[in-house]
Amino acid sequence: MKTKSTLLPQSSEWTFESLLLYEKAIGDIAKEFHLDTYSNQIEVISSEQMIDLYATTGLPIHYPHWSFGKQFVNTEKLYLKGYTNLSYEMVINSNPCISYLLEENSMTMQAIVIAHACYGHNSFFKNNYLFKTWTNAESIIDYMVFAKNYIHKCEQKYGANAVEELLDACHALRNYGVDRYKRPQKISLHEEEARQTERAAYRQSQVNDLWRTIPENFKKKQHLGSKKHRLPKEPEENLLYFLEKNAPLLEPWQREIIRISRKIAQYFYPQKLTKVMNEGWATFWHYTIINELYNRNMVSDSFMIDFIKNHTNLVYQLPYDNPNYYGINPYTFGYRMFSDINRMCTAPTDEDKLFFPELTLKEPLEALDFAMRNFEDESFILQYLSPKLMRDLKLFAILDDEKAPNIKVTAIHNSAGYESLRQLLSQQYNLAFVEPNIQIYDVNVNGDRSIILRHVQTDHRPLDEESTEKVLHYFHALWGFDVVLESVSAEGTVLKIFRCPAIERPSTSESP
Amino acid sequence: MSQFIDRRTNGKNKSTVSRQRFLNRFKKQIKESISKALSQRSITDIHVGEKITVPKKDINEPFFHYAPGGSINRVFPGNREFSVGDTIPRPPSTQQQGPGGEASDQGEGTDEFTFEINKDEFLDFFFEDLELPDLVKTELKAMPQFQNVKSGLSLYGSPSNINITRSFRKALGRRISFGTDKRKKLKIAEDRLSGLSKKIAANSPRRLRLKKYIAFMKEKITAIPFVDTSDILYNRTTKQINPSTQAIMFCVMDVSGSMDEAKKDMAKRFFILLYLFLTRSYQKIQIIFIRHHTSAKEVDEQEFFYSRETGGTVVSSALELIYDIIIDRYATNDWNIYVAQASDGDNWNADSPYCQSLLKEKIMPLVQYYAYIEIMPRHHQSLWNSYLTVKEENSNFAMQTISKPSEIFPVLHALFKRKAS
Questions:
Q1: Which terminus of chain B is less hemmed in, N or C, by CB atoms within 10 Å?
Q2: The complex's ipTM?
Q3: In this structure, are A58 and A80 located in the same domain?
């Protein structure tokens, strides 16, 4: 490599001049590694501003809601009492890519954060297929401006309470506001505003049509179809979408707000599915880039010691029996996955050749780039988790069956266990492992307009009853008629039924 | 291409609206918390924030999630001793631990959510029951008023504060002192010139040299600046709390058996409100707590609110004590004296006329304001009627029957009105 480089500023206090120099050096190296990024907008903020950002999950513009206030109050309390540190940076999937650096960071930290966020996360946002498909980095800020203004207008017109109640319901259901299999349309501010009125009118007419109860029409329908008209035709996983389009009693503005909350949910959806990959990618690159700075004599030994200390803390994996164990650290796991891919391309062992024959022939940069672009956590692990890494992390699987008196070890990091461990760990990052699979199953179109949701159990895991009842209450508020949730075993037997309103009404209530 | 922006100068209060909504939503719980806090706080501690505790179950945002149970095969790191087929007793708590801990993050954890509200918010909630007029609320919450007071002169300041007289005087002094020597020399030269004999020609070198020297000296004297920057003096002002006076507040309460906790709580709010009012007007406030049944006693706040007594009621004992204390310790001219009395109206019948005369003749001439509240009396007794006659004669005497907190304010109403005007 060319080395005409000079030492970067070594003071542990950063200045804007030194930030510029570091950013330039890091950016140059990133380019050599073919990292493809949005342009960066790097903002230095105070800790109070960081607490503000926490409240709205990083978005610099958001409509107000009490739950953000709660989040704010909580973070502020923990921070002021010293129970928690704020993260060193926050980065938003937008174009230009906005990163926030905390002003308290040392120069070393700022350098790590620039490499990590402005080049690592940034290139991931721009190139990973989930982000490309489900989010639109160009317009998210504009869309949030639209959302904030629209909700503000609604509050003035219909009262803050009515809007808050609606948002509460939407927030309770926001994990169910994404089309996972259908590819969504792009969102854009101008279209959004232009089409909003038109859409409201159209949508209302559609709904009215669906629920027309003029006796004539009703009779005609009965005559025409002995075949039952089923709604939805296929079970619908996007609960908010279904409510927006089909809930009979909602006003147009309510439908628009539901739409806003599912659009925001969709924007965050890829982040949930790529925690390991996203953090792993960013960590791998900050490690690689900072080391490259050192190799080129651009940073000093003391800078490197500071860096290594921070990096090591970041990627430390607590063992399962540590009282503070909170799961597999996505930074560690992702970082080691990408490092392992790099290793297998540069210095493959016989075992690697056996397990990953195609990988051992590839250029490392090419292999890494391919892995980053085309996977999410679940498939990434299934595709790339190597026996060596399973041994390094000393992975093992435990079956916890509530019916059995004891828990049982089902696989460990040996040749008999590799396949099963990889399978299990990959499943652990399947969304259904974290969020119950609940879909809209049927609507009683011609009868009492009740709606049936179905929860299909995985691993025989039951729903939490208290929170489920509360969420159904919100669902009922949006739908306007009876809501039933059936918890169904994988084989299709109904195991438990939740209802809202809770007391079953006599089915003959329609008689005069 | 990258761009750096320094956002630190931007405001930090982006979450204010959301925070306000959060407080509004949990108003009921917060007020409960505040009521509890009020009963434990000292009157003089009213100016600080408060830790609020809200049950977690009220505050959780529900979402669909799993309950513990089922049959889950999970992967963990850090195996040391296990082999396939090992069975292990189930650890005591089988908590949800999905990747990232999402389920346990917001799920039911500890039972309480605590946070802090600041002084202003605390007062807002405190005022709410009292139904104070808005003007009064802002007045009570406002910072003490400052007044600029002249405090001598300074060498630095803004041009508008130049003290012209003093600056000129100083300039004059400087001109005199700088010029004395030169004027002296000038005088000598002039004397010499006039002392020269007529014989010496007008254009003789000696005469010319003297003339030149005189001209030079005159020029030097006029070159002394009329006003120099170092002469200029500025008026200096300092901020002073206005008005910087002191007040005595007597809290008088009947502690006979009929005063129960609810009544005492109401009385406490009454005392706090008066105290708050006084903190706006006076820099230093002393509170004297006097409790009485058949005899009166000066006590500390703790004893005032929390110890119980039984027995009859003789109000005059307290009034006598007030009078004695005033005469003993506080010369009327230096102290502003306020009395707040709370009672449920009980008094020994024969005592009431004596109270009336005590007030009229001895106490009322000494105090700024006397506020009396009767809390939830069964019926008015002789004391009420005696006080009514005092009220007729004194505009700074107020009395009120109170059954809920919102009725406290009117008794202090006149006080606030006077302040506002």
A1: C
A2: 0.86
A3: yes
